[in-house]
Amino acid sequence: MGRSLLSQFVNLSSTCPRFMSYSTSSKLQRRLHLTQENHIPIVGGVSSQRCYCSVATPEPVISETSSTSIKKRIVSGVQPTGSIHLGNYLGAIKNWVSLQDKYETLFFIVDLHAITLPYDVQQLSKATKETAALYLACGVDTSKASVFVQSHVRAHVELMWLLSSATPIGWLNRMIQFKEKSRKAGDENVGVGLLTYPVLMASDILLYQSDLVPVGEDQKQHLELTRELAERINHLYGGRKWKKLGGRGGSIFKVPEPLIPPTGARVMSLTDGLSKMSKSATSDQSRINLLDSKDAIANKIKRCKTDSYPGLEFDNGDRPECNNLLSIYQIITNRTKEEVAQECHDMNWGTFKPVLTDALIDHLHPIQTRYEEIMSDRGYLDEVLAEGASKAAEIADSTLNNVYQAMGFLKR
């Protein structure tokens, strides 16, 4: 559930009785003006970054849910490492604002995942709060979604251990991201957590009996591991075996489906149109951070990599940077691909870059303003996270107790 639960929220990317929706406390309702006013308009679909594999099942069709129907549940999150950038926003957080109206949603800051690689201990707590504030500033509404910190719900770690006991080591050794990162860091510098964090991602998802998980194309392998683990646990401990131990029987976990949006799921680097925009990239010029100043945004767009072809166009394999910049412009201006293609077809880079710069500044300005308001009232943010963790823990603890029972543990 930046590297997203699931860019592996982060930036990673289950069956049980439905849980009731939660109402916001009266104390928080008095202060919700910070997040409920002037929501960002929805401008196209995106996917969750640190979300959570190759998926053999067909992707679900997203349909509107009526007010009387039971909403399906979605979980997702982003790591609090580095600065939240345009890729995290367009690839995850912005989509959440749309999803929260259609589904029961839980969005968390995946701080436990943030320690699998070297990190700044002094900055972790601060970055966690800042990431939560950006969730709200981007339009996540706490009257519709639960917002919390992963480490504040201890069931995540407990379930991870239980799942680890049933996870074949071969499944983890095949994870592409582990191979890549361990090769770069070297065996002597790689902690066990880097190998096992996909199990924690599975825990993040399965704890909440999630129906759907927003994932980017590069995170599908992690979700497939989650699906395989859910099926493995259901087979080993569910059904009649669980019923004989006093449980309800049947499946312990719901097997979640991937939710892969049609556009905006993969924002590329400003310096290399073939590489994903990333927090870990050495050069800050490769990304637009959500809190970048107007001058910084203008400078990055002015210096970003382009090409020497005439005109601008989508979907030319020889022009990845062109496709990336046009796609960003399309999403943040809430235009169709056809409209943008027609508008920009005869433009050159000298004409288009100022247009893109102005569009980015206009789009990010209200987010930055709300972020400053939220960060100026730390008590409000603490209340939001505490209430979100409390709601999440109710669901997570119910799932965890079922797992303990099905696996034969003595009842507490």
Automatic annotation (TrEMBL):
<dbReference type="GO" id="GO:0009791">
    <property type="term" value="P:post-embryonic development"/>
</dbReference>
<dbReference type="GO" id="GO:0005524">
    <property type="term" value="F:ATP binding"/>
</dbReference>
<dbReference type="InterPro" id="IPR002305">
    <property type="entry name" value="aa-tRNA-synth_Ic"/>
</dbReference>
<keyword id="KW-0436">Ligase</keyword>
<keyword id="KW-0648">Protein biosynthesis</keyword>
<keyword id="KW-0067">ATP-binding</keyword>
<dbReference type="GO" id="GO:0005739">
    <property type="term" value="C:mitochondrion"/>
</dbReference>
<dbReference type="Pfam" id="PF00579">
    <property type="entry name" value="tRNA-synt_1b"/>
</dbReference>
<keyword id="KW-0547">Nucleotide-binding</keyword>
<dbReference type="InterPro" id="IPR002306">
    <property type="entry name" value="Trp-tRNA-ligase"/>
</dbReference>
<dbReference type="GO" id="GO:0009507">
    <property type="term" value="C:chloroplast"/>
</dbReference>
<dbReference type="InterPro" id="IPR014729">
    <property type="entry name" value="Rossmann-like_a/b/a_fold"/>
</dbReference>
<protein>
    <recommendedName>
        <fullName>tryptophan--tRNA ligase</fullName>
        <ecNumber>6.1.1.2</ecNumber>
    </recommendedName>
</protein>
<dbReference type="InterPro" id="IPR050203">
    <property type="entry name" value="Trp-tRNA_synthetase"/>
</dbReference>
<dbReference type="InterPro" id="IPR024109">
    <property type="entry name" value="Trp-tRNA-ligase_bac-type"/>
</dbReference>
<dbReference type="InterPro" id="IPR001412">
    <property type="entry name" value="aa-tRNA-synth_I_CS"/>
</dbReference>
<comment type="similarity">
    <text>Belongs to the class-I aminoacyl-tRNA synthetase family.</text>
</comment>
<dbReference type="GO" id="GO:0004830">
    <property type="term" value="F:tryptophan-tRNA ligase activity"/>
</dbReference>
<dbReference type="GO" id="GO:0006436">
    <property type="term" value="P:tryptophanyl-tRNA aminoacylation"/>
</dbReference>
<dbReference type="GO" id="GO:0048608">
    <property type="term" value="P:reproductive structure development"/>
</dbReference>
<keyword id="KW-0030">Aminoacyl-tRNA synthetase</keyword>
